[in-house]
Specification:
The complex is a heterodimer of chains A (about 950) and B (about 280). By secondary structure, chain A is of the alpha/beta class. Chain A contains 29 helices and 34 strands. The longest helix of chain A has 18 residues, at about 5-20. The chains are: A alpha/beta (about 950), B mainly alpha (about 280).
């Protein structure tokens, strides 16, 4: 026997022994090892040569400490290069140990260094001096700020004015943390940005599956179908971009639907540019194509759709058989021919035919995604996601390899050390009766709701949120904030200056990506991972033998983090524990003393993350040390079809099965350490909890919907007054051509450039240099008709007023439609804020007439950063959102961003960036859209404010769901 | 002609594992007698000697290009396109494919894959690892060379060069600095394997100054600052690598030997007959 053969034999024997022990002998390529990263064994002392010292070889020694980018929800991994001598962060690069981002970042990740080193960043707590809105502040201590705020909060709670407390989140740092803080306070005070972001998209998915977000398995798809302004508008741009690229390298087809020629569209095999708001009609035409040609997965539809409920409601006297349902299916969408869709969308039949055939050929490997884009732009936009998922549901491409999963199965929220009960109150300032089915808080209506109800907020806190700038109708926000009767105390938790912070009473500096603790998990592939963000300088000092007890000790200035802030604040609200608040922020190791963030995460990682303790032990680390060292942990890869899992016998006790196969059990729910929210179907009349669904005689886990199945027919929509929309359908947008008069255009403002992020990237010089302006996209045909040339100033006239912008004449937008990007047009009052990206302005008000007068654009200036003297750009765009009236969708609550506008040449004297608005018009628009709603008072089938099973952040107790007595 | 046996499949899988997985199972390392460090894996396979055919068969060199196109076409006879990896010229993938074919008793297909996809470059690659890898990992090269020699016996003597060598690009003529770099840095152009670690050794051995950076950048800096010494050191490396092919008479070994010999001749001429300052950029 040759030597090679002997080696082979020995290897085989070893393999068989290892396999028998349940281990994997050949693990295959590392998913995270890339040539571009320092090997993790050298992270404690990584050496690079200082390029500026060449030809001398001067070594720079760094500690590479993982953290996570804070600049969007993707939460991509970063490595902070901490200089071992100066203990300063030199730069950020990717973290190859992060399973989602796999070492890669978009521009925003590395640009974090700009935000951290910004010479104008807020480093100390500030308090208003003089009237609100003057832009004058003085430095105060944290103690002074906390004392005042805590006193107000405590008083409000004691006086049962819980609904006068609100924390408004832009970017939540840690999954569920703020909600738990509010729950501990007994306050239904959570507000979010979601209804200006993704509620439209969420509604479509939740009405199907009980889970409000998709998780597409792009990497393994055969066909990728995006209704998106760029790779789902930033969710999750980098991690998904990689996987879409990999799929395309393997031959997957990419279809992009975007009225505008985006960067993503340029990579597509098929780019479809429909008239805005017609996307759902197009999806239904594709669905009809699949149905009429019998290309749907019959077995999947039969097993997993709630077709029985559909027949029971719509055809109760007909045979209640699947064959009869199929006959109905052939007729339901029969009118949605490709020709009809072509007429609606103004896209050729040939293109739609090609798309339909490509989609139909995908089988179970269709990865589709819609997040903002059309779902965020249009009245009825939630039907865009409802109809896009219809395609997956027809093809059986749900939770399949290469298909579309639901996010809850690819996400992990570890149970924390304390889980307070949810509040017994309901806040109608964020959950008004008129919107019983809204996906999230009607956040952007706050000024109007306060005005209409006469209510007030004692303490209003924003957290990395800038409603004056991000929301529509910003002047209404300014009016509200300026009125101290409406807002008792406004606290802005922010790392940087922003337009809303100028009107704050307190500005409290919170840390950036490398200056705070958070844990989080996002659905980026068929797996579950947990990420960890940490204050890297604290970790660096501790690795060198120091001890840091409070993150402020390690951060620049007095920059803090919310985790420690809320613990401290809660202790001040309830110093003796008599309110029952303090207990949720107490140490378990040292009862009676404050919980530390170290104990908080140590407990979480030791008790609530399966596999982490074992993985840590193999390296001789504690779970906390493991997360501090690597920044992320993959809990599971390949979750698969959770819906099809058989429910174990231990959960089947004293069953009751509904006529449609919903299975209820008396067996208690098993404990779980994953507290990711999903729909929460109600128990049956006898109190049994829903446990699964009967599929061909086997009890399977199913979906978290009332029926346990995919709800093609939504009994919720039907019973809450929207029977016409109970099945996926097409709702004509408010910008449908039928609603436009001569000379009017739909304005698309929902697209963003992935280089910037809403409010907190204006102080990143690198990002500002790449993207700093937002001209109005106009097709050459329209430009010619309006006698406009490229670069001309134009007035864009909206329902509320107008803004003055530059025209960009381009074939990248279809005729009859105009577009203008989000992010740009930042402004500042006085000297506060970043000169690179925020133009100085003067705000003028006369009655309800507001004007924003720009005072120049960006310009170079002297600072401690020599680059600020190299600013070469001047055009920093226009704040268009100020001129947008609020458009709440009556079902999803989503602000329907598209505006109906006219374009005229700028008048003499108009300045680029100028804005004019009449807030009296704001109220008219608000009232007009409120007439579309159907109040819970009128439609609730069971005396509740909202279906209990629907997801809701910070869901109050059952009692709070009861409708108030009618007035 | 020798036929490979299924019994050798395990070794192929193990070699594939150590070439692509920075954390192989300790049992593999024990049997193969490797002194493993994660660091060493990174230096060897990520920085110095990427285990991809295209790197040794293109000018530049590049990852991808015509060798990948050819292999994709070849593999389509065995695998549907969507099952092919994004880099079908990866050594690990090809070794695993051979092992799979042996287990399926498809020895003839395995021989074809070896001949077309591995024989053009694996021998040279194996010797490069044996020469340049961190000490604890050089045995990978020795084992790959043994496997290569063993499998080479399956090639009928009547066969000519495999396609990837018959169609290999012509060596760039060393008429200016750019084409000199193209040639010396591309194994298929010069026959020479010149990893970054070898450049570093040259600088230490001869006391030269090199600007750290990408391989091309660093090599250029050596030539700019010390052209005579650098080219002299290159000739030393060429001589060492010529010895790799001594006593080998296969067409493939002869092919590589000829390329190296031509490089030796060209560099000698450049060294002796050309003023570096006059050598065009």
């Amino acid at each position: 026997m040759s030597e090679l053969a002997k080696l082979s034999d020995r290897l085989r024997a070893k393999r068989e022994a290892v396999d028998a022990a349940g281990e994997t002998f050949y693990q295959g390529p590392s998913k995270t090892d890339l040539a571009s990263f320092p090997p993790k064994e050298r992270w404690d002392d990584w050496v690079e040569l200082d390029s500026r010292q060449w030809p001398k070889r001067v070594e720079r020694h760094s500690m590479l400490i993982p953290t996570t980018c804070f600049n969007c929800e993707s939460a991509c991994g970063l490595l902070a290069y901490v200089d071992r001598n100066t203990l300063q962060v030199r730069k950020f690069e990717g973290n190859p140990e992060h399973p989602g981002s796999r070492g890669r970042n978009c521009a925003k990740g590395p640009a974090t260094i700009n935000q951290v080193t910004d010479p104008d960043r807020i480093l100390h707590p500030l308090k208003r001096v003089g009237p609100r809105g003057q832009g004058r502040f003085e430095r105060v201590t944290w103690d002074e700020a906390l004392r005042d705020i805590a006193n107000r909060l405590r008083t409000a709670i004691l006086e049962e004015r819980q609904n006068e407390i609100m924390i408004h989140l832009g970017r939540p740092g840690e999954d569920g943390y703020t909600e738990r803080v509010l729950a501990a306070w007994g306050v239904d005070g959570h507000n979010s940005h979601t209804n200006v972001c993704s509620s439209g998209g969420r509604a479509g998915y939740q009405y199907w599956s009980g889970i409000d977000r998709p998780s597409a398995d792009f990497a393994n798809a055969k066909v990728i179908y995006l209704i998106s302004s760029h790779l789902e508008t930033g969710h999750y741009f980098n991690p998904h971009a990689q996987r879409i690229t990999e799929a395309r390298q393997r031959g997957a087809k990419l279809i992009v639907v975007d009225t505008r020629l985006s960067n993503t569209a340029t990579h597509a095999d098929l780019w479809i540019s429909p008239w805005p708001g017609t996307e759902a009609a197009m999806n239904l035409a594709f669905a009809n194509y699949i149905i009429q040609n019998d290309r749907y997965d019959r077995d999947f539809v039969r097993s997993w759709w709630n077709w029985q409920e559909y027949l029971a409601a719509k055809a109760p006297t007909e045979p209640q058989t699947f064959e009869n349902f199929e006959a109905h299916l052939k007729t339901i969408y029969a009118d949605y021919t490709l020709e009809y869709a072509a007429a609606e969308t103004r896209v050729s039949v040939e293109t739609l035919q090609e798309a339909a055939e490509t989609l139909a050929s995908a089988g179970t490997a269709l990865a589709s995604h819609n997040w903002r884009s059309a779902a965020a732009g249009n009245l009825g936009g939630w039907q865009v996601s409802r109809t896009i998922f219809l395609l997956n549901a027809l093809l059986g491409a749900v939770a399949t390899t290469g298909g579309t999963n639901l996010n809850a199965w690819n996400k992990y929220i570890p149970r924390p050390i304390h889980t307070p009960n949810h509040p017994n109150v309901w806040n109608e300032l964020s959950w008004p009766l008129e919107f019983p089915l809204a996906m999230n808080e009607l956040s952007y209506l706050l000024p109007h709701l306060i005005e209409r109800t006469g209510r007030r907020l004692e303490v209003y806190m924003t957290r990395v949120y800038n409603p004056v700038w991000t929301n529509p109708d910003g002047f209404s926000w300014i009016e509200m904030l300026l009125d101290e009767r409406k807002i008792g105390c406004y606290v802005a938790l922010t790392p940087t200056w922003n337009e809303t912070a100028f009107f704050a009473d307190y500005i409290l500096p919170m840390g950036h990506a490398s200056e705070r603790h958070d844990s989080f998990s996002y659905e980026q592939y068929d797996g579950q991972w947990l990420g960890f963000r940490q204050p890297v300088l604290k970790v660096a000092r501790e690795r060198l033998g120091g001890r840091v007890y409070d993150t402020r000790e390690a951060n620049p200035g007095e920059v803090w983090e919310e985790n420690e802030f809320y613990i401290d604040l809660s202790w001040r609200i309830d110093p003796d524990g008599s309110l029952g608040i303090r207990q949720h922020f107490e140490s378990r190791v040292h009862p009676g003393s404050k919980l530390t963030v170290e104990e908080y995460y140590r407990w979480m990682f030791e008790n609530s993350v399966p596999g982490l303790p074992e993985a840590a032990a193999t390296e001789g680390l504690t779970p906390l040390e493991f997360m501090q060292r690597y920044g992320a942990f993959e809990i599971q890869n390949g979750v698969g079809q959770v819906v099809a899992e058989e429910v174990p016998e231990t959960e089947l006790s004293d069953l009751a099965i509904s006529e449609f196969g919903r299975v209820y059990t008396r067996a208690p729910e098993p404990a779980t350490s994953n507290i990711v929210p999903t729909g929460d179907p109600s128990p049956d009349e006898d109190g049994r909890r829903p446990v699964g669904v009967n599929v061909d005689g086997v009890v399977r886990r199913g979906f978290p919907t009332p029926s346990g199945k995919l709800e093609f027919y939504s009994t919720t929509l039907a019973s809450w007054g929207w029977g016409d929309y109970a099945t996926p359908t097409y709702i004509k947008s408010h910008v449908h051509p039928e609603h436009l008069t001569e000379g009017q255009f739909p304005l698309i403002s929902t697209f963003r450039l992935p280089v910037q992020i809403h409010t907190r990237s204006a102080n990143s010089k690198w990002l500002d240099e790449i993207a700093h302006t937002n001209p109005v996209w106009i097709n050459p045909i329209d430009a010619s008709r309006l006698t406009l040339a490229d670069g001309d100033l134009v007035r864009v006239n909206t329902d509320l007023g107008y803004f003055v912008a530059k025209a960009w004449v381009t074939e990248g937008i279809r005729p009859g439609v105009v577009a203008c990007s989000h992010h740009m047009g930042r402004w500042r009052i006085g000297d506060l804020g970043s000169s690179a990206m925020m133009r100085s302005v003067k705000l003028e008000k006369q009655g309800t007439q507001w004007g924003l007068q720009p005072r120049g654009g960006a310009e170079p200036y002297e600072s401690t950063d020599p680059d600020t003297s190299r600013i070469w750009w001047t055009d920093i765009g226009v704040h268009q959102n100020l001129t947008f009236g609020v458009h709440p969708d009556p079902i999803s609550g989503m602000h329907c961003w598209h505006q109906v506008v006219t374009i005229t040449k700028a008048a003499p004297g108009d300045s680029h960036g100028e804005v004019h608005v009449d807030t009296a018009r704001s109220r008219v628009i608000f009232d007009r859209w409120m007439q579309l709603t159907r109040s819970a008072q009128d439609v609730s089938p069971d005396g509740t404010r909202r279906p209990r099973w629907l997801m809701r952040p910070l869901k109050p107790s059952a009692h709070a769901f009861e409708l108030p007595p009618s007035v | 002609m020798v036929v490979q046996q299924e019994s050798n499949a395990e070794l192929l899988d193990a070699l594939a594992e150590v070439v692509e997985n920075p954390d192989p199972h300790p049992a593999i390392l024990e049997v193969l007698e490797l002194e493993w460090t994660r660091d060493g894996f990174t230096e060897l396979f990520d920085f110095d000697l990427p285990p991809f055919a295209s790197y040794y068969l293109t000018i530049g060199p590049i990852l991808g290009g015509e060798p990948v196109g050819y292999l994709r076409g070849l593999l389509s006879a065995y695998l549907r396109p969507e099952l092919q990896p994004s880099q079908p010229d990866s050594l690990a993938f090809l070794l695993r494919l051979l092992a799979l074919l042996l287990r399926q008793r498809s020895e003839d297909r395995a021989h074809v894959i070896f001949y077309e996809a591995l024989s053009p470059w694996l021998g040279t690659y194996a010797r490069a690892i044996a020469s340049f890898a961190p000490l604890g990992l050089r045995r990978i090269g020795l084992l790959l060379d043994e496997v290569y020699q063993d499998w080479s016996k399956t090639i009928p003597s009547a066969l000519s060069l495999p396609f990837l060598l018959r169609s290999a690009p012509e060596p760039p003529k060393m008429k200016d600095r750019e084409s000199l770099l193209d040639s010396l840095l591309s194994p298929v152009g010069s026959g020479l394997v010149l990893p970054r670690s070898e450049l570093i050794r040259i600088t230490h051995r001869h006391g030269l100054g090199m600007r750290p950076g990408g391989r091309r950048f660093s090599f250029q800096s050596l030539l700019d600052t010390s052209p005579g010494e650098t080219l002299g050191a290159i000739l030393e490396t060429v001589a060492i690598q010529l010895a790799w092919y001594r006593n080998l008479d296969s067409p493939i070994a002869l092919w590589w030997h000829q390329r190296l010999a031509a490089t030796q001749s060209s560099v000698t001429e450049l060294l002796n007959d050309t003023e570096w300052a006059d050598f065009p950029r």
